[in-house]
Amino acid sequence: MAIKTMPYDAADFLTDDETIAAYLTEALESDDPRYIAKALGAVARARGGMAQLASETGIAREALYRALSETGNPELGTALKVLHALGVRLTASLSV
Question: pLDDT averaged over the chain?
Fold first, then answer.
């Protein structure tokens, strides 16, 4: 008997602010730019989609899809615009 699988999208599970914050924190702590971009894309989809994000950031929807994909590598300015539009505030702390 074959195993039946379904596509997985993290956005389906990002249902509240606490979960989103934990997901983004884990992604940022990974130090993997592609994973961070993919996580931002999942949060964007969970928070209303790329069309809404494009409207709020002034960045074309197609450019957001590319930048926030698994193979994306957004510029810092793009990432900061996306974070701001998603209501995410970054803070810095020094590791001791």
Answer: 92
